[in-house]
Amino acid sequence: MLNGKSIMLRVARLDECIALLKNEQGISLRTYQTDRRTQGLVERCFQVAIECCTDIAGHVVAGLGLERPAHRKDLFRILGQAGYLDPDLAATMVQMVQLRNRLVHLYWDIEPERMHHYLHHDVVFLERFRAFALGLIEAQKKPEP
Question: In the Cβ-directed half-sphere of 89, how many Cα atoms lie within 13 Å?
């Protein structure tokens, strides 16, 4: 059984991060490279959004009684192998966890060009994972025949 309330709290925070990231998508690479405030906002929003996704994935894996992960990135692999997540989305979310780790542990070595690319191309994956989470919650609400 999934804890819908706990998942929805994280979806709400994920929504905030996605909205902030989408708001920054109009910034040019040139401006992004010199705007430390925007860089900090984008990096933090990606970090928190990915944390929300891994927390949700953890709740789902536990709630469905799936294999216990060795590492946080394994949550998405497990969901993909069990058929809950599209394999491409699962693989991308594993990479997102690696981005989160880089933001947290190698914060001094973040390339603005790479983050600008993520800002313009990877927010959609956060949105897709959000849709997946909401779909599970909705499916759980439906009575079984």
Answer: 19
Q: What is the CATH number of the domain that holds 78?
A: 1.20.120.580
Work out how many domains the chain is built from and give that number.
1
51, two tokens:
């944390």
The model's pLDDT over 36-77, given as tens digits with 9 standing for 90+, comes to: 999 999 999 999 999 999 999 999 999 999 999 999 999 999
Distance (Å, rounded) from C-alpha 38 to C-alpha 52? 21
Reply yes or no on whether the pLDDT at 88 is more than 80.
Answer: yes
Asked if residues 69 and 78 have their Cβ atoms less than 8 Å apart, the reply is: yes
Residue 51 in contact with residue 27, Cβ under 8 Å? no
Output the pTM of the full model.
0.93
How far apart, in whole angstroms, are the C-alpha atoms of residue 72 and residue 120?
Answer: 25
Residue indicated by tokens 């944390």: 51
Q: For CA atoms 115, 117, 119, 124, give the dihedral sign.
A: negative
> What is the pLDDT confidence band of residue 19, given thresholds at 50, 70 and 90?
very high
Number of H helices, E strands in the chain: 7, 0
Provide the residue range defining the domain that includes 117: 4-141
